[in-house]
Amino acid sequence: MVTWRDAAVWLSGVLSVWCGGSLHVSAQSEPADSMMMLEGLVVTGQSARQRISGVQLGAERLELTKLSLTPALFGENDLIKSITLLPGVHGEGEGAGGFEVRGGTAAQNLVTIDGATLYNPSHVMGIFSTFNDDAIGSATLYKGPLPAAYGGAVSSVLDVGLAPGSMTDYHASGTIGLLAAKINAEGPVVKEKLSVAVAARRSYVDMFLKMVPEYRDIVMNFYDVTAKVRYNPCPGNYVDVSFFASRDNEAISKLMSMRWGNVAASANWSSRSGDVWRFVTTAGFTNYTADMGMDIMNADRTLDEYILNFSLNERVTLSLGEKHELEWGIRSELLRVKSAEWAMGPVREREVRSGWQNALWMAYSGSFGEHVSLSAGMRLSAFSALTGKRFEDFVAIGGGESPESGRHTYVDPEPRVSVKYSVDGHHNIKAGASVTTQNLHAIRSSSTSFPFDRYALTSVSVRPERAVQYGLGYAGMTEDGGWDWSAEVYYKDLKNVYDYIDGRGMFSDIDLESITLGGKGRGCGAEFMVRKNSGPLTGWVSYTWSRTRTRIPGINSGRWYDASNDRRHHLSVVAMFRINDRWNLSGSWTYSSGQALTAPDVKYELDGATCYYYSGRNGYRTPASHRLDLSAVYTRRGKRFTGQWAFGIYNAYNHYSPYIIYFEDDDTRPSGSRAVQRSLYGIVPSVSYTLKF
Fold first, then answer.
1. Which of 21, 345, 378, 594 could form an SS bridge with 622, CB 3.0 to 4.6 Å?
2. How many domains does the chain have?
3. Are 354 and 335 contacting, i.e. CB atoms less than 8 angstroms apart?
4. CA atoms within a 13 Å half-sphere pointing along the CA-CB vector of 276
5. Helix (H) or strand (E) holding 67
6. Which domain holds residue 683?
7. 569-578 and 427-438 as β-strands: parallel, antiparallel, unpaired?
8. Cα–Cα distance measured from residue 629 to residue 81, given in angstroms and rounded to the nearest whole number
9. pLDDT band for position 310 (50/70/90)?
10. Which tens digits make up the pLDDT trace of 609-652?
């Protein structure tokens, strides 16, 4: 047993050691080559045994040390792109920075950073993730039945924690790459009492674009800043204050401009009372803003929107011995959403809604004998649509009528359960089910997470989106933990799924409820994964088969149709090879079948204009997307400084995956039209240098 006196330490994003607590290290938990040194303390990384020992079905506690070795675009270690290599998860597509889980959309995920919610977490056309990898301390993805402590998402939860600064030593690093640079600094303000960690990143993509004459008028840049202050007043207590800010800017001369970003802050007070009670109090704030301007063909348009989120959360844990634990809590959240405010010349329109979301939950986790473990809970969610001048604002052309409003409260019970049966120490079977609801609806205008999707809050007319998910899984490992494997199947049923009416889009009407309809959806899938954990060559292979369908009365003649984000097959192959203490090689190959696409069936002319007739929604498929990414990292450690060169090749065999497909006239073809595919990236080399001290 080793006593660790720092406030809290996260190892591989998995292990949390509390102030004044004890850390138990097993001498036989891992092969020697997976061990790592942390300030004089030798600990093992997340082993195969730890992965399969968890009760929660579909939970992925991410090994940040391994994910950081996977190839990334332009030399950046990208958390979100890394998790898309896991089963059941894939990226939205070329040029998009979001991720989709088990047939859900990116907007159906809950992404939090130290308890504060983030919206649209991506940078400039998906090139970079919102998260600076130097600032991340932990990350857990829940893609199956969610724990009762989480709500507000019908697809998945990505819970990210910022790394606290060291309480004893000062550390800093700086990285210069082809398209971005970043710095990171941490250390004690008062040793063993107060520490701070700060990380910042800035891109300079447009500096390279200005070297090409036809791209000189293009603006494309971003910045992000993270900071965390930790105060350890006494054993068993610590207070964290976290801050996150990001902003993106894109523009093409005076024709078009886009800006979006998040500003978030949170305060967390964690305390213990003996070995039995734990308390965590969290206050959070998020301000997501986005705006766009366009002046094309004498059509001067501007659009802006925002999401304001204020939250307060209390979480209490009671330990009932070594095998049983109770947890309960309460959360209150105030949302204010501007769906859109736009100007078309001198005319301005605006729609603002507000809602109050509250939840109570209680959960139990424990083991019964050597074979059966259980995690079960109940969450009671209540959402109230707020009315009055303080909470609503609607302005339409000519003073049009306000959409239907009124005070209305929805109460939804959300039971969750996961059960694990351990066949022996190396094999287990898991089953689970959950009910989740979501009251912030992103009405998507395309199949990618464009920053200007319009958002609707639950109201008298718009009901909470509700998902019921069932899952069954098996996991196994070899006796030495050198290999492990898993397989899971799931079925998901959704209600109150919203989409635009046929022929309508985000600019059709300021009253969003008047141009959308609600219906239901369903999805199912199977996920498989095999990992190699020991030796100089490690990695994994994952495969996912899934199907997602939607049925909304009034759309597609009321028939079932494939959802825009439906991808039938997704395959990932990841390999990491450690040559020696200085050189590490890695590669990943991904394949995703094409997305559903609505294509015209008939072309005709009306008053000299070409018109297309669409008989069904999403009846066609785009070409498949696939690519190979390679990287090599050279590290040289000195007594005071560590230098690291990272070389990478994105899309090594130069395959152009579809970014957007549209149709245009072509008199040379019998049909008189053709489909045109536009792609963003071919082969892209990268290099970056990092200095740590």
1. 594
2. 1
3. yes
4. 2
5. helix 64-67
6. 2-692
7. unpaired
8. 12
9. very high
10. 666 667 778 877 888 889 899 989 999 998 889 998 989 888 89
